[in-house]
Design goal:
By secondary structure, the protein is of the alpha+beta class. It has 3 domains: 90 residues, Rossmann fold, CATH 3.40.50.20; 115 residues, ATP-grasp fold, B domain (D-amino Acid Aminotransferase, Chain A, domain 1, 2-Layer Sandwich), CATH 3.30.470; 59 residues, Dna Ligase, domain 1 (2-Layer Sandwich), CATH 3.30.1490. Helices cover 32% and strands 24% of the residues. It has 10 helices and 12 strands. The strands form 3 sheets. Strands 10-9-8-11-12 form a 5-stranded antiparallel β-sheet. It has a 4-stranded antiparallel β-sheet with strand order 4-7-5-6. Helix 1 links the parallel strand 1 and strand 2. Helix 1 packs across helix 10. The radius of gyration is 19 Å and the shape is globular. The two termini are 22 Å apart.
């Protein structure tokens, strides 16, 4: 058994606090399993990170970072250069999956349907409507629903303005899909289950994801069998098409309104190459549903750590 594990957590993204919770939970589970675990709160100092990984050297990195630098191929590239196996997806898959426009193109080629949408310049969106309402705007390269907004018919405020959009010059605009929120975790080559997420207020935003009592989870999702199977198949297809490894989680909207129904009402939203592993997270919940403990899923990720090169 590999004994020396470094858990990278924290980081410099807007998801830092969630990453810290994920990292601590995974580190504790790995310790209980018998691994020697070093927790590393990753900051701006790359030299400090290199020292922490090399003195003494580690056998595997458990990457519990979320968002920019930790989930977008950057830290993966550093670990490739160092030759240290790491959990989750490699450089290219991580970079592609973080970019929503690239992800839509890749999964579309694999036959996975996502909502109609395109990337526009923020200045263009500020000038007027670029799509009939309702539609969704989101940062091109963020996770955990950071910055996501639903622009509804009758809203008086502009979709974005120069003061409240800190996510760059480009904006992903997608047709809003009414209905229900579904998610599927993929472990290696196995989709685990379909969960329906029901926010108690508003939509499934950052607060609903990480605040206890803000959303209800139903597993298995109470949807028609054809829809559940389409979600399982779509998550696995996205995972494979992007070249992901380890564990991912794909999110969907299921439109069961106005008689749409059926598998044709299912739309892929995004894939998370390093999904959260907090007490409220969906991957551990799905793993438990199929009989895999939290410690076992963390151990499995360590055992399947790799370098691309």
């Amino acid at each position: 058994m590999t004994r020396r594990i470094a858990v990278l957590m924290g980081g410099r993204s807007s998801e830092r606090e969630v990453s810290l919770v994920t990292g601590r939970a995974c580190a504790e589970a790995l310790r209980e399993t018998g691994f020697h675990v070093r927790e590393i709160d990753v900051g701006e100092d790359v030299a400090a990170l290199l020292r922490a990984l090399s003195d003494p050297p580690v056998d595997v990195v458990f990457n519990a970072l979320h968002g920019h630098w930790g989930e977008d191929g950057c830290v993966q590239g550093l670990l490739e250069l160092l030759g240290i196996p790491y959990t989750h997806s490699g450089v290219m898959a991580s970079a592609m999956a973080m970019d929503k426009e690239t992800t839509k193109r890749v999964v579309a080629a694999a036959g996975v349907t996502s909502p109609e949408g395109r990337v526009v310049e923020r200045a263009e969106l500020m000038k007027g409507e670029v799509m009939d309402r309702p539609y969704v705007i989101k940062p091109v390269r963020e996770g955990s629903s950071v910055g996501v907004r639903i622009v509804r018919v009758g809203d008086n405020l502009p979709p974005v303005d120069s003061a409240d959009w800190p996510y760059g010059a480009q904006v992903m605009v997608e047709r809003f899909i009414p209905g229900r929120e579904l998610t599927v975790a993929v472990m290696g080559d196995r989709p685990l289950a379909v969960t329906e997420i029901s926010p108690r207020q508003g939509f499934y935003d950052y607060e609903a994801k990480y605040t206890d009592g803000r959303a209800d989870h139903a597993i298995p999702a109470p949807v028609p069998p054809a829809v559940a199977q389409a979600a399982l198949d779509g998550a696995l297809a996205a995972h494979r098409a992007l070249g992901c490894r380890g564990i991912t989680r794909s999110d969907f909207r299921y439109d069961d309104t106005n008689g749409a129904g059926g598998a044709k009402g299912l739309y892929f939203l995004e894939i998370n190459t390093q999904p959260g592993m907090t007490p409220l997270s969906l991957v551990p919940e799905q793993a438990a549903y199929v009989g895999i403990s939290f410690a076992d899923i963390c151990t499995w990720m360590v055992e399947h750590a790799a370098c691309d090169s």
